[in-house]
Amino acid sequence: xxxxxxxxxxxxxxxxxxxxxxxxxxxxxxxxxxxxxxxxxxxxxxxxxxxxxxxxxxxxxxxxxxxxxxxxxxxxxxxxxxxxxxxxxxxxxxxxxxxxxxxxxxxxxxxxxxxxxxxxxxxxxxxxxxxxxxxxxxxxxxxxxxxxxxxxxxxxxxxxxxxxxxxxxxxxxxxxxxxxxxxxxxxxxxxxxxxxxxxxxxxxxxxxxxxxxxxxxxxxxxxxxxxxxxxxxxxxxxxxxxxxxxxxxxxxxxxxxxxxxxxxxxxxxxxxxxxxxxxxxxxxxxxxxxxxxxxxxxxxxxxxxxxxxx
Length: 310
Ligand code: GDP
Prior knowledge:
By secondary structure, this protein is an alpha/beta fold. The chain has a single domain, classed as CofD-like domains (Rossmann fold), CATH 3.40.50.10680. The chain has helices spanning 11-23, 48-57, 75-82, 93-107, 112-122, 150-156, 178-186, 201-206, 210-215, 237-243, 250-256, 274-279, 294-309; strands spanning 4-8, 29-33, 39-41, 44-46, 128-131, 138-143, 147-149, 163-169, 189-192, 220-224, 227-228, 231-232, 263-267, 283-287. The strands form four sheets. Strands 5-2-1-9-10-13-14 form a seven-stranded parallel β-sheet, sandwiched between helices. Helix 1 (11-23) packs parallel to helix 2 (48-57) and helix 1 packs across helix 13. The protein is globular and about 60 Å long. The model has no long low-confidence stretch (mean pLDDT 97). Guanosine-5'-diphosphate (GDP) binds next to helix 1 and strand 11. Guanosine-5'-diphosphate is lined by residues 9-13, 15, 49, 194-196, 200, 224-228, 232-235, 237, 289-291.
C-alpha cells in the first residue's frame, strides 16, 4: 500500500499524475494542484491547472493542445465575442460546462476544494484532486514596464514580454487547503511533478507552513525535472528561468528544490548534470522522463514508485 502525494501544475504534472493513477489505487494517491493561475472569464471561475489534471484523469485531454477537452468546439466563445466579450482565452463549449458548474458551486457557498471534489467525482475520477488553497492567490508576471495578470502574460501576450520577476499576490494570507494538510500528514512519499518550476510548483510550496512541512517530512520527497536538454518540452519555463538569470537546466531546477527534495529525477540526456546536482546534497536518479505516450507515463510512474523502497 502506497500513500503518495503528488504536487502538480498543468501539462507536465497531468502527464505524470495520469501514469501514477494507472498504478495506484484511489486511496493511495492524492494530487494537490496549483491554483495561482486561476482567473475569472465571462464571470466564470477558471482553474486551468486543476482542469488539465482532471481532464487527464478523466481521459478527456486534448492531446494536441495539452489543455481543454478533446473534440471540443468553440461556438459559445464565438457567440460571446459577437456580444462584445474578449475571446483571447480559449474556452471550449464542453469546457465551459466545468467552469459554469464550478462557479455555481462557489456561489452557493462551497469552497474551491468542495467544488473540485464535486467536479472530479462527476467526471468519474476516483483519485483525490485537491486545490492547493481555498483562498485566492494570483500569479503576477512583472516586466520592465508593468505587472501583468498571469493569463494576460501567458495567453494573451504569449509570454512575449521579458519578465523581471514573479509575484504570488495573496500568498501571505492564503492557507493551504485542509485536504492538502491532511494529504501531507497521511503521505509516505511526496512527488513533485515535472511542472513549471517558476510559476506552478512555487505557489504550492510558498503557502504558509508548506515548505517547513515538506522539509521536515518523514518520508521521501522525489522531484522530476521539467527541463530536459537545457530546455522545456513545452511552455515558457525555460524562457522564464533565463530571464530570471537562473540556469536553464535540471541543475537550475534542483537549486530551487534544495532542502525539500531528497531525490531528483533527471532525463538520460542530462546525465552530465548529475554530479553538480549531487553537490547540492540531493541524490539523483537518471532515467527516461519524456512522457509522450500513455506507456511512457506509466513507465515513469512505476520507476518513481520503485525508488520509494530503494
Ligand atoms: P504549464 O501549466 O503548461 O506551464 O504546465 P506545467 O506547470 O506542467 O509546466 C510545464 C513544464 O512541464 C515544462 O517545463 C515542460 O518541460 C514540462 N513537461 C511537459 N511534458 C513533460 C514530459 O513529458 N516530461 C518531463 N520531464 N517534463 C515535461
